[in-house]
Amino acid sequence: MCEQNKDENTGIIKDAGSKNSQNEEPLVKMVDIHKWFGKVCALRGVNFHVNRNEIVGLVGDNGAGKSTLIKILSGFHTADKGEIYFEGKKVNIQTPKDAKRLGIETVYQEQALAPHVNISRNVFMGREPTRFLGFMNRKFMQNESLKILQKLGLRVKDPNVVVEALSGGQRQGVAIARVLYFKAKLVILDEPTIALSVKESEQVMEFIKQLKEEGISVVFITHNLYHAFKIAERFTVLAHGEKLADLKKEDTSIEHISYLITTGKREEMVK
Questions:
Q1: What is the DSSP string of 25-94?
Q2: What is the predicted pLDDT for the residue at 74?
Q3: Residue 158 neighbours by CB distance under 10 Å
Q4: Which residue stretches of the chain have pLDDT < 70?
């Protein structure tokens, strides 16, 4: 009989000498991630994973290391120590282009949209389809933009409307439509409900549910635990560059997570 080993980072049991099927591996696994900025240690030995078709809430106070961890995964920073695996294979993510090639897309809180440019151009920004002699295929972009926005449930009739004329929730919808259209495997959302009204925040929650329905995994970074608890299935809690806990939704509560964040205590110290 083959010896069984349990991966301490994911809890997945592996048979030594046998090969796991691809679906048994997490979509992404970050192992022992360290990051220094000068003498400041921003991340210290963080392990983080996201399973396939899973919504993970990455939570913590300001300075916890959430943005740094995600910027390493999305190619804006490189880790000083540690390894990253994507779909079971070790990968070297040095630039945002490397991340995009793997299927990792990031929507930052500033949305990375061009406010004075219309919706269809924003959906295809940097990936504009061309016709003969290199001219942009505007009609194709307009039609495809409307289709993907309607799929998200975003009621926009004219793809030529400039983004600055949209509400905050609609702008997030355009940003999410872009990653959905280009077949992302993992979408990272950095504070997607910040400065939005209650109605707009609910709209963004529906957009995130649509991503999951399409089989896309999501990392939801937020300070708003109430929003995170509505949508996330699991929570990774960071504080001062270290991981405090990794909790399934059914095993925790908003009060419990808030306590971990405010005290900075590891989960095993609380029990």
A1: S-SEEEEEEEEEETTEEEEEEEEEEE-TT-EEEEE--TTSSHHHHHHHHTTSS--SEEEEEETTEEE---
A2: 95
A3: 11
A4: 1-23, 109-112, 268-271
DSSP classification of residue 134: G
Q: What is the pTM of this model?
A: 0.83
Non-local CB neighbours of 74 within 8 Å, separated by 6+ positions: 93, 96, 99, 104, 106, 188
Residues 230 and 242: their CA atoms lie apart, in Å, by: 25
Q: Indicate the burial class of 137 (C-beta count within 10 angstroms; 0-12, 13-18, 19 or more).
A: middle
Quickly count: other Cβ atoms within 10 Å of residue 87's Cβ.
Answer: 17
**pLDDT recorded at residue 110:** 59
Place of tokens 């069984």: 4
Superfamily of domain 52-77+93-270: P-loop containing nucleotide triphosphate hydrolases (3.40.50.300)
Q: How far apart are CA 184 and CA 214, in angstroms?
A: 10
Q: 189: helix, coil or strand?
A: strand
Residue-wise pLDDT for 80-130, tens only, equals: 999 999 999 999 999 999 999 999 999 876 566 888 999 999 999 888 898
Would you call 216 helix, strand, or coil by DSSP?
Answer: coil
In the block, which residue shows the tokens 């005290």?
263
Residue 152's pLDDT is: 85
DSSP 18: S
How high is the pLDDT of residue 6? 42
* Predicted local distance difference test score (pLDDT) of residue 248: 96
Residue 61 sits at the vertex; the CA angle it makes with 179 and 186, to the nearest 5 degrees, is 20
Please report, for the chain, the start and end positions of each structural domain, with discontinuous segments joined by +.
52-77+93-270
